[in-house]
Specification:
single chain, 1426 residues, alpha/beta, six-stranded mixed beta sheet, globular
Length: 1426
């Protein structure tokens, strides 16, 4: 070790950075070495091959002498030329051998340039960070060795400044043409620059570097980081770009704007202590792209700028945009450092004259000392009004000339430090604001139901509100409480006396959690503990007391009483929440006008000013007697009414006016509201177009305003049948606001003036079967016979000579609307066929579903070209890949089906002929449903039944107007793998919902950029193997499973544990987690096992995800998989831990292991399978494949990946757990477990069953046929009931299967008008499940009761059902007609044993499922019968 050397202890540059290089020697002992060392090597084409080999050898030889390891020296390597590339991170390789192997495999990058400055920035952003292995926070020295042969081709100053400022040791090893001055600039100290004149000097230079590095690694040489000297302090500034994003700018010009911003910003040092950048786009309204404090690194900023896309819009409201920026961005909450005297700059880039006033907002910005620079192709006079000084106005002839302004703009952006505005004082005295003193408490929903994304939006909203007030103990005081099932204070009114302290706490706000929302309890809490003198309330001094409640759901407790108490105490309550709970919000608020509804919490900025007004001005609260009372809505007052209006040219503008007036008068008579009467309206001619949906408007004024604006759509053909189908499919749906599922009456009012050209009978019948009551008004050329076919009944047909006579029938129409409550229709649903085994093949059925809306129209040639390019690369044919293309906007349009063309040329020709469909609305959910039902079918050429992989490629440019989640789930259930390409305004959350996995989600700026991802798409499209894993039917029936993840927690896993955790986190959203649905458990193991959480610990996804994210590596040297398998069988799948096998619910184990077990796995694996558990086995790296196969239920359920990163690729396979697919053989159940059962059929024999009784008999017979019937085996009995029960035969009446079947065949319907299930249950308990009647309950033979009912009982059933449970009699509830889940669950042994079916045919569909559960059910007698 070198003990003396001459060092430059105080280098000017280091001092200016606030750094001091000091050297000390420890004589007594050698300090252990630790460092994070990154080699940054020039890999450009300027470097000769021999020189690159020399550099590689130099690094390898240097590393040979180091102690490599996670607790010693870590090595990373980056190669650069035009751009930098990571070869490996600090935490990639833990051993010297692995590092040396990686260096041996190193290949020269190539490239014309050597951009060292960019490479230094890359190291800061991507390598000297904790996630990449940096231990800087632990005080481990950070070291970079730059190896280069020439001067940098870009500016290195910014990178050098940042890397030195963070205290990194920088060495430069140069060969040949390295620039000495630049090398000294980069190195920490001139002595850290090492030059290699030739290869012979390599060993000597390596030794010099080793000597210096050793001093650093043993901390004998340290850099002390102090405060930077003011003389060279980096210029801080906050720069906001406000850019014209209107449609008149166009995509090409918008790109020029983005390029200008990128070229300007890359010249600055970006960071919270340097320059901050924000971007806002505007047209008719302003939209924030990102805030000043969003991006803290240059690379993150440039990435965000590259992703900007034109938002569009035809109106240019520059004044409103300037006001938006002032109010929402030049604030502390948004990252502005104005209060710290950092210069505030606004750069406006616009392409046209504003349509609103710009002077007032521009003057506001000037008075606030915000320096506005105006750049534009627009009106120079208006730009002069906006800019803070005429010298800061830059006009160009076109957007392509913007590049010429770069240097001109850099001068003011780099040099302006502030501005003083002199303006006249107002001559009229200003009244002191009423908002000087007030106590404001925010009560915030912190439950899991709200979600982290919404909490972030609420946090920002509160911060913006607080920013507007003058905070202080003698001014405005603020308190904050979070709540769910209980309330917890974040801070009291007197906790903080400054704005900065409050904002700091608000920004740190984290979700408290909880699943139940008790708002009433929370209101009581704030009154008792926040609005008190002890907590800072100044009510006794007359200071206004205000409460702002922000909630995302309906309260589970009473809110009225605590709301009244708050009001009586003089607290003014404002309430903010989502629109679907607005009624309850009005109950809580001091006045209905103080309840603010938003569609989603991200829209909170839109109501900021409305909320601020009462917060700033209200001084007292109205008395309770003055509050408006909202009448309670009866269920009978609720209705969903849709008007379907003839909008063809035959009606004409003349008739449209009386139709509009008629609709207006009808609406005026209705009690409109989201929880009362909802109204939708559709116009039609050859096609149907919605004007508004049932859930579009929730107030009468909005509806009447929209009806008043109604304009004739036109068209010469009248397709009434197609229009009826449209309203059935797209309007009377939950997504469009229909409350059909809640039992709300559904009305359709058709107004038509002509004969329909298409069939109207079938769609009319469909509407009738779905429970929609249709009223028909026909005038002029309407055909009465057609009207009669459409209407619910003849009395609901109204004919007129002309539309001007509509007022005459208004009262006649209102009668059925006021009195009818519904129509009961019995209809049978088709039986779904099971999916067959998938054959391993290269054939694929690929459907392209493409956005054909007007918005995407201009890019349609690019879409065509993209399709052409992709299809060109595929093997196409009836026995190879089949291709279909569907366009969609509001509705779908098939271009060609999978079996339309059999040759590639024909398909390419068809693609070439395609024209954009057009349409303003995107109904992606409906389009996805359409392709499932109409394109991925055998009739359309799908080979799904033959096991051919089914792939869907969706191209979309905007947010869907309908819900996509259910359709996305249906695609997964159908094993259709969906690729998603999103462009322009596509919603990221929607795309993630639709894509089969995140690996199959692609984002582009616009459709012109599609070629950029063609190869990325083609690889999985051509190679993805879609394997539908066959599961036991019990596993897939009913979406109820017990799933246990048994994961390797040994020390071998090390830092890769997070990748195993991520695998579980990625899978959880695909399960239906609830108390009576899917249950999840996680167990870690090594030499022993540890339950992280049992199956019955959590009842929703949010709880499971939160618990999984908290998992930490267990540790342990040995891996005992056999012991762990035995442990989960005994302790995790057990009934006491939430296991539900006794109820027939399937149990799945997912084993994730990284090594060979040190104990036997064969016996515990077999016992696990014998217990009915289906194990999956996942092996990482060099695991024993035979061992995995022994554990897994079948070889198809064994998965092996090369490394931990490969786990992310397993999503597509493992998600098959949640697919509804059919089975391999079920796990064997021992004969003793199923050969004895006492089974009673308790059958509804009332008149409601009627003609369906033969199907009930058939159902019973089929059930009996599948059991081994006899005295020592399975026994059957039958009881019928209506008002009273009647035993048909007892358990011991018949001793053979033949006799039982014959007795069932002879059964006759009992009849009776009422059903008393309670009486029937008591009868079977007292008279049938007895020793004398053949019951073997005393011998522990399982007792099973299959109850089949058509409706709700007229007597009480709760007491009898509970007695049956205590006796250990397992009751299955089977419901027909009106007997739904709510009727069956109180009777059934558990909710999972309730089976509502839509039709008598449906009984046969659940037969196999019932048998499987009956064969596995066990008995547990809690009480003995009296």
């Amino acid at each position: 070790m070198v003990t003396t050397m001459k060092m430059h202890c105080s280098v000017f540059q280091l001092v200016m950075l606030g750094l001091v290089l000091s050297y000390s020697v420890t004589e007594t002992q050698r300090v252990s070495e630790s460092a994070d060392l990154i080699f940054l090597i020039d890999g450009s084409g300027d470097l000769r091959s021999a020189e690159f080999q020399f550099i590689r050898s130099f690094i390898a030889n240097f590393i040979q002498d180091l102690n490599i390891g996670f607790d010693a020296i870590q090595i990373g390597l980056v190669q650069y030329s035009d751009t930098p590339s990571t070869e490996f991170y600090l935490n990639t390789y833990p051993t010297k051998t692995e590092v040396l192997n990686a260096i041996q495999d190193l290949r020269q990058k190539g490239g014309n340039q050597a951009n060292t400055g960019k490479a230094l920035q890359f190291l800061i952003d991507n390598h000297f960070i904790a996630s990449a292995g940096s231990r800087a926070e632990e005080g481990v020295p950070q070291v970079m060795v730059l190896m280069t042969t020439r001067q940098s081709t870009d500016d290195v100053r910014r990178g050098v400044f940042l890397i030195k400022k963070r205290g990194t040791f920088t060495f430069v090893v140069g060969t040949r043409g390295v620039n000495a001055a630049e090398a000294k600039q980069i190195a920490t100290d001139p002595s850290f620059v090492l030059h290699i004149p030739d290869f012979q000097q390599m060993a000597k230079t390596r030794q010099e570097l080793m000597s210096l590095f050793s001093l650093v690694a043993t901390k004998q040489l340290v850099i002390e980081v102090g405060e930077a000297k003011s003389e060279v302090q980096v210029s801080k500034r906050d720069i906001i770009f406000l850019i014209d994003g209107s449609s008149s700018v166009g995509y090409a010009n918008f790109l020029q704007i983005c390029k200008l911003i990128m070229s300007i910003t890359e010249k600055f040092v970006i960071g919270p202590d340097s320059v901050q950048i924000a971007v806002i786009q505007y047209s008719d309204a302003a939209v924030t792209e990102f805030h000043l404090n969003t991006h803290s690194t240059q690379s993150a900023l440039q990435t965000a700028l590259k992703r900007l896309s034109l938002r569009g819009g035809w109106t240019l409201n520059t004044g409103a945009a300037l006001d938006y920026v002032y109010r929402n961005h030049f604030t502390r909450a948004a990252g502005s450092r104005k209060e710290d005297s950092v210069p505030q700059l606004l750069v406006l880039i616009t392409g046209g004259r504003s349509e609103d006033d710009v002077k007032h907002p521009a003057d506001t910005l000037k008075r606030a000392a915000i320096m506005t620079i105006a750049v534009g192709v627009g009106d120079p006079a208006q730009l002069n009004e906006i800019a803070i000084d005429p010298s800061l106005v830059f006009s160009v002839d076109d957007f392509h000339s913007l590049r010429e302004l770069q240097e001109q703009l850099m001068t003011p952006l780099s040099t302006l430090a502030g501005v003083t505005i002199v303006y006249e004082k107002p001559t009229v005295p200003v009244k002191k604001a009423e908002m000087d003193k007030r106590d404001i408490v925010f009560l915030v929903d912190g439950s899991y139901n709200l979600g982290k994304r919404n909490l972030a939006a609420i946090r920002d909203f509160i911060a913006r509100i607080i920013t507007t007030f003058d905070i202080g103990s003698d001014k405005v005081q603020v308190g904050l409480v979070q709540y769910s099932d209980a309330a917890e204070p974040e801070f009291f009114l007197n906790t903080y006396a400054s704005k900065n302290e409050i904002l700091s706490h608000v920004r740190r706000l984290r979700q408290r959690g909880g699943t139940i929302l008790q708002t009433g309890k929370a209101l009581d809490f704030v009154l008792k503990y926040l609005f008190t003198k002890y907590s800072g309330s100044r009510q006794e001094e007359g200071v206004p007391q205000l409460l702002v409640l922000i909630t995302g759901g309906k309260s589970r407790d009473d809110v009225k009483q605590p709301s009244n108490t708050l009001q009586q105490a003089g607290v003014i309550t404002l309430v903010i929440g989502v629109e679907n709970v607005i009624k309850q919000l009005q109950e809580v608020s001091s006045d209905p006008s103080l309840a603010f509804g938003v569609k989603e919490f991200t829209s909170l900025p839109e109501i900021q000013q409305e909320v601020l007004l009462p917060l700033s001005t209200l001084n007292e609260v109205r008395k309770a007697s003055e509050r408006q009372t909202t009448p309670t809505t009866k269920e009978t007052d609720k209705k969903d009414i849709v008007f379907l209006i003839d909008g063809s040219f035959h009606v004409g503008n003349t008739n449209l006016q009386p139709i509009r007036d008629f609709v207006t008068r009808i609406i005026e008579t209705l009690d409109i509201g989201s929880d009362r009467v909802r109204v939708g309206l559709v116009q039609y001619s050859d096609t149907a177009e919605p004007e508004f949906y049932l859930n579009t408007y929730s107030s009468k004024d909005e509806l009447l305003s929209e009806v008043n604006r109604l304009r004739l759509r036109g068209g010469t053909v009248l397709n009434t049948g197609a229009a009826l189908s449209y309203v059935h499919k797209y309007i009377f749906t939950k997504y469009s606001g229909s409350r059909k599922e809640e039992g709300v009456p559904q009305f359709l009012i058709l107004l038509t003036g002509g004969r329909s050209k298409d069939d109207i009978k079938k769609p009319s019948d469909t509407l009738l079967r779905s429970g929609v009551m249709t009223l028909v008004i026909g005038a002029e050329n309407a055909i009465e016979q057609q009207l009669q076919q459409i209407a619910l009944e003849p009395s609901m047909v109204y004919t007129l000579d002309e539309f001007s006579s509509l007022p005459e029938i208004q009262q006649d129409v209102l009668i059925p609307l006021s009195t009818l409550t519904g129509v009961h229709i019995i209809s049978e649903l088709p039986t779904m066929k099971n999916t067959k085994d998938v054959i391993d093949t290269q054939e694929r059925d690929i459907v392209f579903l493409i956005d054909g809306s007007t918005k995407a129209g201009s890019s349609f040639p690019s879409v065509r070209e993209f399709l052409h390019g992709v299809i060109e690369q595929l093997n196409v044919g009836l026995n190879d890949n089949r291709i279909a293309v569907v366009q969609y906007s509001m509705d779908p349009k098939v271009e060609f089906l999978l079996n339309t063309y059999s040759s590639k040329n024909d398909i390419l020709d068809a693609v070439e002929m395609m024209k954009p469909k057009g349409g303003r609305t995107l109904n992606t959910g409906a389009a996805l449903n359409y392709v499932i039902r109409n394109v991925f079918t055998a009739a359309s050429g799908s080979r799904r039944d033959a096991g051919v992989p089914q792939l869907l490629v969706l191209l979309v440019s905007g947010k869907s107007n309908d819900n996509v989640k259910k359709a996305a789930e249906a695609l997964r259930r159908a094993a259709i793998v969906t690729f998603v390409i999103g462009a322009m305004d596509a919603d990221g959350n929607e795309l993630q919902d639709i894509a089969y996995s995140s690996n199959l989600l692609f984002a582009v700026q616009d459709f012109q950029s599609l070629p950029d991802i063609q190869d990325q798409l083609l690889q999985p499209l051509k190679t993805l193997i879609v394997e539908i894993i066959k599961m036991p039917s019990s596993v897939t029936e009913g979406n109820k499973r017990d799933i246990v993840f048994l994961i390797d927690g040994s020390s071998n896993v090390r830092t890769f544990f997070y990748l195993i955790r991520d695998l579980i986190i990625n899978l959880i959203p695909n399960f239906n987690i609830a108390k009576d649905k899917d249950q999840i458990s996680v167990v870690q193991y090594s030499d022993n096992a540890r339950i992280e959480f049992p199956l019955n610990a959590y009842t929703n996804k949010e709880q499971v995800l939160a618990a999984t994210r908290k998992l930490r590596l267990k540790g342990g040297r040995r891996l005992k998989t056999g012991f762990a398998l035995d442990f989960v069988r005994r302790n995790v799948f057990s009934r006491s831990s939430g296991g539900r096998q006794h109820l027939g619910i399937s149990q799945i184990l997912v084993l994730v292991t990284s090594g060979k077990s040190q104990d036997d796995v064969k016996r515990p694996s077999e016992e696990l399978k014998q217990a009915g558990v289906v194990p999956f086995a996942i092996g990482i790296g060099n695991v024993d494949r035979n061992e995995l196969d022994q554990v897994a239920y079948s070889p198809k359920l064994t998965f092996q990946v090369d490394d931990y990163w490969g786990l992310s690729d397993l999503d597509l396979h493992l998600l098959s757990i949640s697919q509804n697919v059919e089975s391999v053989t079920t796990p064997p159940i021992s004969a003793s477990a199923v050969d004895k059962r006492d089974v009673i059929f308790l059958i509804d024999g009332s008149a409601k069953i009627g003609k369906g009784f033969p199907m009930v008999r058939k159902f019973m017979a089929k059930m009996v046929e599948n059991f081994d019937v006899g005295e020592g085996k399975v026994q059957f009995g039958v009881v019928q009931f209506s008002e009273t029960p009647r035993t048909e035969f007892f358990l011991n009446t018949h001793s053979t299967k033949k006799e039982v079947l014959a007795a069932i065949k002879k059964l006759k319907l009992k009849r009776g008008k009422k059903i008393n299930i309670g009486l029937a249950l008591d009868h079977v308990m007292r008279n049938v499940f007895t020793n004398s009647a053949g019951s073997r309950m005393d011998s522990a033979v399982p007792q099973i009761l299959l109850l089949l009912t058509s409706g709700k009982s007229r007597d009480d059933i709760v007491q009898q059902a509970e007695k049956l449970r205590k006796l250990g009699i397992v009751v299955f509830g089977i419901g027909l007609k009106e007997a739904d889940q709510t009727v069956l669950e109180p009777i059934a042994y558990s909710a999972s044993l309730a089976f509502p079916v839509r039709s008598f045919q449906g009984l046969l569909d659940i037969q196999n499922r019932l048998q499987q559960i009956m064969k596995s059910v066990a008995i547990e007698v809690v009480e003995t019968p009296v």
